[in-house]
Amino acid sequence: MRTVANILQNKPPAFNFIDPAAKVIEGLQLMNSVNLSYLVVKEGNRFCGIFSERDYSRNVILKGLHSDSATIAEVMSTSLPSVGMQDTVENCMQMLNSHKTRYLIVFEGQDFKGVVTINDVLREAIENKAMVFDQLAVKEATEMQDKIF
Prior knowledge:
The protein is an alpha/beta fold and 149 residues long. The protein has a single domain, classed as CBS-domain. It has eight helices and six strands, in the order αβαββααβαββααα. It has helices at residues 4-9, 24-34, 53-61, 72-75, 89-99, 118-127, 129-132, 135-148, and strands at 17-18, 38-43, 46-52, 82-83, 103-108, 111-117. The protein has a three-stranded mixed β-sheet. A three-stranded mixed β-sheet has the order 4-5-6. Helix 5 runs antiparallel to helix 6 and helix 6 runs antiparallel to helix 8 (135-148). The longest helix is centred in the last third of the chain and has 14 residues, at 135-148. It is globular, with a radius of gyration of 16 Å.
């Protein structure tokens, strides 16, 4: 059975970090330059949360804040589900669906190890469907993607 460790092995190490005190506009510029939909918010070595395109639209635009004055800390997501390195891909799929999120935070003990995205789980399901899911679970993953996007 494929695990979170397998997913993270196939991803480059996280490099999309931002400080919580940074302005939202800096976060948007960084997301654009690294071509990702989220940034990992860290203060030193401490994981603080995720800043995503969804956070921008819901917590900046819809609340009337300004990108050049609001900080990442004011608008980031902090209540995200987490998984461990030995959690299965199938468990990740279920967590993404039940929490209606696109991101799972990976910890090993207290150490931040990375982020598993819905795209990571779907890629894993497609590439290794015989090892990860039965046919019913692949169908559920595809339907889940349609609901979230």
